[in-house]
Design a protein that fits this description.
There is one protein chain. This protein is an alpha+beta fold and 469 residues long. It has 3 domains: 236 residues, no CATH class; 143 residues, Protein Transport Mog1p, Chain A; 53 residues, Membrane-bound Lytic Murein Transglycosylase D, Chain A (Roll). Helix content is 38%, strand content 21%. The strands form 4 sheets. Strands 8-9-10-14-13-12-11 form a 7-stranded antiparallel β-sheet. Helix 1 crosses helix 5, helix 2 packs across helix 4 and helix 8 runs antiparallel to helix 9. The radius of gyration is 24 Å and the shape is elongated. The two termini are 33 Å apart.
């Protein structure tokens, strides 16, 4: 659904109040909203509880509500335990913001711009919400039934239905932009926070893995999956802010905001498994593996997904139940995937664990399949290449050979990356502070996280974010 992520902002004339229709009746949507709330929690890692951060978000919403044209409306905000950069709203007034979104923002005015945009969708009661009500209720009911009847298919339905949140039209997004910037300004916040945050999101999206041809990796379901593109929206958000005030006016509360997000986890929650470069670790389940050279990994609720930097190879790892009496070679050829060559199936052992492999052919991909029995589960690996070769197959075989049990020391030392706030000292450079980042593309990510431009000098005494273990 909506926030700041599309390409332009609605800019009503400066002398005209935006007239808003009545909000939806709560009784109409309570049941559907409750079910949708549970679906969202399941899709985005559940709630993230942090009293200091929850208080900051709640106080921001209260100020925005008091300044809105509908101060009688009530909103409930949930922080989601997801590294995705996303925010959205339900017609009932339920607002969601991910901890990934909060980690990217740099002050309270940027947070206010996110929340004000989402509130604008609720206040304006956009037609898409009304039109989608029956359809979304049907989706939720079907997903619930799928989860109960077939957990694997239910998980797939949850993943696919995430994109159903993207139901606002471009015109509605632009209208919400205009309302949101004005609302944040009336609440006393810096109206330029919207354009700053839009810029940060665009730059952050550029750090995502690229697919074939340099296109953004479609595996990444985050804010830009449900909102239009950035450049024109930055321009229009900036124009709307200039209508309201000169730069430098309005509260930003940067120090208070940074204090609130200090210590917030960055990236995946280790209890659900996490990636460190090419390596994936799951401390709770006790296993690890390393993807082939040149791959980047993404851990989703349904599977670990990987793509090579040139987009020509990919992988998926998930978990399935296979009866103990069924051989893994038989499972690989049992029909769960089309195009499997039964003659290629063979049972084998990987680091002491029963396993099997087979080859499948499709268009335009060729697949090397593995199944590894670990504990009571079977981990299924699908390696894919557009150009089959002996070298690619060796790389896949080497990768599956890294699947192993984690040591007790590895499990105990697996901790989440966290946001740390540091004060710039005289002589500190961007490069020096970026070198302390425990992430990939450290310099670029440091600049994006702190809203800094390449070549911009640091000011001693100011605070910046770094990501540490």
């Amino acid at each position: 659904m909506g926030l700041l992520g599309t390409g332009c902002a609605f800019t009503p004339p400066a002398d005209r109040q935006v007239s808003l229709p009545d909000p939806p009746q709560m009784a109409e949507t309570v049941s559907a909203a409750q079910r949708e709330h549970q679906r969202i929690l399941a899709s985005y890692g559940g709630p993230y509880h942090n009293p200091r951060l929850e208080q900051l978000v709640s106080q921001t919403v209260e100020k925005l509500v008091a300044a809105s044209e509908r101060p009688d409306l009530h909103y409930r905000v949930t922080i989601l335990n997801s590294p995705a950069v996303n925010a959205f709203a339900l017609p009932s007034g339920q607002l969601y913001v991910t901890r990934g979104m909060l980690a990217l923002a740099n002050d309270t005015s940027e947070l206010a711009s996110v929340l004000a945009h989402e509130m604008a969708h609720v206040i304006a009661r956009h037609a898409a919400i009304r039109e989608d009500k029956a359809r979304q209720a049907a989706i939720v009911s079907r997903v619930v039934n799928d989860v109960l009847n077939d957990p694997q298919m239910g998980a797939l339905a949850l993943a696919k239905s995430k994109i159903a949140l993207a139901s606002f039209s471009r015109a509605q997004e632009l209208e919400a932009d205009g309302i949101g910037v004005a609302l944040a300004a009336r609440a006393g916040y810096d109206p330029y926070g919207a354009s700053r945050f839009l810029s940060a999101m665009g730059r952050n999206a550029a750090l995502k893995p690229l697919g074939a041809g340099g296109a953004a990796d479609p595996r990444i379901v985050d804010f830009f999956s449900s909102h239009p593109s950035t450049p024109e929206r930055v321009k229009n958000a900036l124009a709307r802010a200039r209508q309201l005030s000169a730069p430098g006016t309005g509260a930003r509360d940067r120090a208070a905001y940074l204090a609130a997000i200090s210590g917030v986890p960055f990236g995946e929650d280790p209890s659900d498994g996490f990636a460190r470069g090419r390596r994936f670790l799951h401390p709770r389940l006790g296993f690890t593996f390393t993807a082939p050279e040149g791959f980047s990994l993404d851990n989703t609720a349904q599977a670990v997904l990987g793509i090579k930097d040139d987009g020509e190879q990919a992988l998926r790892m998930d978990v399935v139940r296979v009866p103990p009496e069924q051989s893994l070679a038989d499972y690989l050829t049992s029909g769960w995937m089309e195009g499997v060559d039964a003659r290629s199936a063979e049972n084998l052992t990987i680091n002491g664990f029963p396993a099997a492999t087979a080859v499948a052919k499709g268009e335009p991909w060729t697949f090397r399949l593995y199944a590894v029995r670990f504990g009571g589960d079977v981990y299924r690996f699908v390696f894919a290449t557009r150009t089959p070769s002996a070298a690619a197959d060796r790389a896949f075989r080497a990768s599956i050979g890294t699947f192993r049990r984690m040591s007790r020391e590895e499990i105990e030392s697996a901790r989440p990356l966290r946001i740390q706030i540091v004060t710039v000292r005289p002589g500190d450079t961007v490069e020096q502070l970026a070198a302390r980042m425990a992430t990939d593309r450290a310099l670029e990510r440091f600049l994006v996280l702190n809203g800094l431009s390449p070549g911009q000098a640091l000011t001693p005494g100011t605070q910046v974010k770094i990501v540490t273990e």
